[in-house]
Amino acid sequence: MTVSVIIVAAGSSVRMGFDKLAAPLGGIPVLQRSLNVFLSNPVVAEIIVVCPPERWELLETTHPTLPIRRVDGGADRQRSVANGLAVVSPSATHVAVHDGARPLLHPADLDHCLQAAAADGAAALAHRVTDTLKRSDEAGLCTASVCRDNLWRMETPQIFETALLREAYAAVAARDLTVTDEVSAIQEIARPVRLVESVHPNPKITRPADIILATAILTHP
């Protein structure tokens, strides 16, 4: 198993009001933490960071053996991943796509996801929905309960055989579809994806309060 990692970090951080990927988390930028977890994994052969030049300049990307490089993002996440996929090494058996805004990925959860992808060809980190779910009308009035059995909230990394992910992205492009994650692209070619339950917190930094939460997790692991 030889894995190319695509870290997606091209978003504008509009909802934060500042660059969330540059924000310090325990003294280290969020994006750097998202990068660091992949540096010591033995099956990772290269890392491609999809980000603008100003974010790239914040990172420590010198590594004695692991190639780390930057590509520009696209108009949305789907196009950003496609830009990264276009430069993945031909020798990569698998591609792992990870959100740059998920800086707390635990090495053990990464390993479990890699093992599932090696066995099944497609795997994604996720966690089961535990909240009570309701459906509302357009006015915000509750209309029904939603059964939460077998419902999952998706996370990253999402890891696939390279040829499979290329096939899925080609199908999405040919059908002029928009997908918000790679599992959705794989579903378009009717291939199953193994969901791997994350054991450790893996929040996505979206709002200022998420920085507070992530800092608390780092302080009390």
How would you describe the overall organization of this protein?
There is one protein chain. This protein is α/β, with parallel strands linked by helices and 221 residues long. It has one domain (3-126, 154-219): Spore Coat Polysaccharide Biosynthesis Protein SpsA, Chain A (Alpha-Beta Complex). The chain is 31% helix and 26% strand. It has seven helices and eleven strands. The strands form three sheets. Strands 5-4-1-6-10-7-11 form a seven-stranded mixed sheet, with helices on both faces. A two-stranded antiparallel ribbon has the order 2-3. Strand 8 and strand 9 (142-146) form a beta hairpin. The longest helix is centred in the middle third of the chain and has 14 residues, at 107-120. The protein starts with a strand and ends with a helix.
